[in-house]
Amino acid sequence: MDINPDQYFMKEALKQAAIALEKGEVPVGAVVVFENRIIARAHNQMEMLHDPTAHAEMIAMTQAAAAVSQGKDQHRGSLEKCTLYVTMEPCPMCAGALVVTKCSKLVFGARDIKAGACESLYQITNDDRLNHRLSVHGGIMEEDSKVFLREFFKTLRKEKR
């Protein structure tokens, strides 16, 4: 691998964001990595599923939990030793899910100053009052992530005129 692992896996998350953009969804993409391989890929599907909880992170965590617990009757699907790569800083719902699933590491692209729950507005993933904390690395390929978001909201503004 010529590029560092965080950039490699973030590029995979960006591919998912591109799919979301093509489908008219807010362009957020996510992948979950376990033992240096991708075990889940997802993009926002809120519009398609008519489900406000269908965030890329939530869908990817559900897929990853199924993957790590497959064939293990006693495994409850926790994401210990997993890393979630996502193109935008998770919201409070997704940050809470990262804590509940005991995900080990979060790497995100664009910061979300209005709803970011891992660095910008809240720090749910590192709150000492909760039973789990995880390593958080924000701003990885941030400009690449913002390109999709800018394009989406520019198009949305044009359509509303």
What does this structure look like?
This protein has 161 residues and is of the alpha/beta class. 39% of the residues lie in helices and 18% in strands. The chain has 5 helices and 5 strands. Helix 1 packs parallel to helix 5. The chain is globular, with a radius of gyration of 15 Å. The protein starts with a helix and ends with a helix. The mean pLDDT is 93.
- What is the tally of helical segments? 5
Strand content: 15-25%
Q: In what order do the strands lie side by side in the largest sheet?
A: 2-1-3-4-5
Structural class of the helix and strand makeup?
Answer: alpha/beta
* Topology order in helix (H) and strand (E) letters: HEEHHEHEEH
- What is the subunit arrangement here? single chain
Please report the total strand number as a whole number: 5
For the termini, the CA-CA separation is 46 Å
Largest sheet: 5 strands, mixed
Radius of gyration: 15 Å
Query: Mean pLDDT, nearest integer?
Result: 93
* Helix percent band: 25-40%
Outline: globular
Unreliable parts: none
Q: What is the fold's blueprint, element by element?
A:
Elements: H1 5-22, E1 29-34, E2 37-43, H2 46-49, H3 56-69, E3 82-88, H4 92-100, E4 105-110, E5 135-137, H5 142-159
Parallel strand pairs: 3-4, 4-5
Antiparallel strand pairs: 1-2, 1-3
Helix pairs in contact: 1-5
